[in-house]
Amino acid sequence: MTIKITPEHYKWLALAAGLCMLLPLPVMQFVGEEGLMALKSYEMHVRGDFLHPSILGFVWPHSPLWHWPVMGICKLIGWEHVDIAIRLVSVMATWITAAMVGWSASWILDERHPGLGWLAALVYLTIGEISFWYGWLGYLDATFACFIFASIALLWRALQEEHVGWLLLSLLPLSLAFMTKNITAYAFYGAAGLVLMWRFRCWHLLLSPRFVLPVLAALAVPYLWQELVIIKGSSTATTTVNDALRNFTGFSPWVFVKHWVSYPLVFLFRALPISLFLVGLWLLRKGRFRMGGSVASLGAIILVCLFPFWLSAGGSPRYLVPFYGLVALLLTGLLLQLDAGRIRQGVLLMGLIVLLKIPYSLGVLPYIKDWMPERDVKQVAREVMQLTADAPLLTENDVSTGLAIAAYIDVWHQDRPPVTWNLNRSARAYVLAEVETPALGRLVKSWPLRGDHVYLYSQGEK
Questions:
Q1: Are 122 and 350 in contact (CB under 8 A)?
Q2: Among 302, 384, 404, 438, which one is least packed by beta carbons within 10 Å?
Q3: What is the predicted pLDDT for the residue at 414?
Q4: Which residues contact 325 (CB under 8 A, 6 or more apart)?
Q5: Quick check: 325 and 109 in contact, CB under 8 A?
Q6: Burial label, 190 (beta-carbon count in 10 A; 0-12, 13-18, 19+)
Q7: How far apart are the C-alpha atoms of 145 and 151, rounded to whole Å?
Q8: How distant, in Å, are the alpha carbons of 235, 237, 314 from that of 249?
Q9: In whole angstroms, how far apart are CA 459 and each of 20, 382, 406, 426, 453?
């Protein structure tokens, strides 16, 4: 019996995929940099400073916007649930991105398919990297991706229709993207703009003050932020440039070659299931695809934006996240070139991803990250609190496990100051260390934890 797939199925599968994003939120302990993100949000709250994030007491020139909704959510549900709050921000950003993908499909894709918007949203929500990881993880990436995609999608319409209103609208998420992460947002926007001007043959707009002046005004936002907000002596641009240069230096030629070969394969795998489905059909000669029109433009924007990360040896697959909205539209455009039977198979594959998300979120992922031996960060944090009682607690541990412990202790023990960096080794206090440091004093206890070690010292006590 053949299962008949209708646009109504697209809708309900997309809604189910969106709801499944919530599954890991209350289950998982801090993962990777989530402890860092929680620390920054909590310290901003304690200091009453909404513009300058800090880490273990040190103010950093990082953009603050992402932390504002975290602080708002924690005001409603309590800071002891900050792990849920940071993930909820990412989930909401993922939902907004999916809605934008669905809405913009009507003017970006050269297709008139029933339920096109719901299908495009479903493709986005079931992309492996989004569904299983960055779509819910409490990092900046989902929110940054939301604003990057919105700015490029609105720019597409602005240049397609030569409408200054859409251009002005595109500049808002562009500025919000900068306020979320860094100035690379402008590079992505500019690269997309050049591709789209070539596509629509609208180079004459570069001579139109109505189009040029708003863009120049938007480019002034990072300068004004640096001059008016960032503490003197710090620079958001310097941090970004240094991070970029690290991806090119210190690698052997073999590492570069391996990265150049593997990066496209990593991309295809992480964009599963539709990416692998379409590649499989093409390799088996069961699907032919036209690479013109919107599909070509989407491919060109993705390629131009990702080329520096592909070229560098240290370009992480994480850098792909801001472009998965464009990838979803590209995959949707290719999927709709197939016959009804193949489209049905693709939708069933996406339905399978939605089903797999349930046991993955509630069982597989917690087992891998939390339930295996020597992975219980919360237990270590509880023991540290018991051993230190109300005595001062400092840290010299800034790896992910140390940051996660500090974040848990901060929000569980809100009546005491947040954990800060140990700047005075003559002070009597307990100190969390990343490595064995006998000079700190008496070793109280050590724990193997997630591949690292955590050491608790009583500073000043032999």
A1: yes
A2: 438
A3: 92
A4: 97, 100, 101, 124, 145, 148, 149, 153
A5: no
A6: middle
A7: 10
A8: 21, 19, 9
A9: 46, 20, 17, 8, 18
Q: Which residues contact 291 (CB under 8 A, 6 or more apart)?
A: 299
Where are any strands of DSSP class E within 245-287? none
Burial 70-86 (b: 16+ CB within 10 A, else e): bbebbeeeebebbbbbb
Q: Nearest Cα to 125, choosing from 9, 4, 7, 271?
A: 271
With a threshold of 0.85, does the pTM exceed it?
A: yes
DSSP 379-418: HHHHHHHHHHTTS-EEEE--SHHHHHHHHHHHHH-TTSPP
Partners of residue 457 on adjacent β-strands? 431, 443
Q: How many angstroms from the chain centroid is the CA of residue 243?
A: 16
Are 429 and 387 in contact, with CB atoms under 8 Å apart?
no
Q: Residues 109-150: pLDDT tens digits?
A: 987 888 999 999 999 999 999 999 999 999 999 999 999 999
Find, among 101, 204, 106, the residue nearest to 159 by Cα. 204
DSSP per position, 151-195: HHHHHHHHHHHT-HHHHHHHHHHHHHHHHHS-THHHHHHHHHHHH
Say if residues 459 and 440 touch (Cβ distance below 8 Å): yes
- Cα separation, 400 vs 31, in Å, equals 8
Give the integer Cα–Cα distance in Å for 310 and 304: 10
Q: Would you state the structure tokens that stand for residue 433, as one six-digit string?
A: 């260390």
Largest CA distance in the chain: 77
Gap between the Cα atoms of 397 and 422, Å rounded: 10
Nearest to 305, CA basis, from 331, 293, 323: 323
Give the residue among 365, 406, 376 at the shortest CA–CA distance from 35: 406
3-state secondary structure of 76: helix
Angle between helices 141-161 and 324-335 (to 10 degrees): 60
| CA-based nearest residue to 151, from 100, 214, 85, 102 | 100
Q: Which residues pair with 421 in a beta bridge?
A: 395
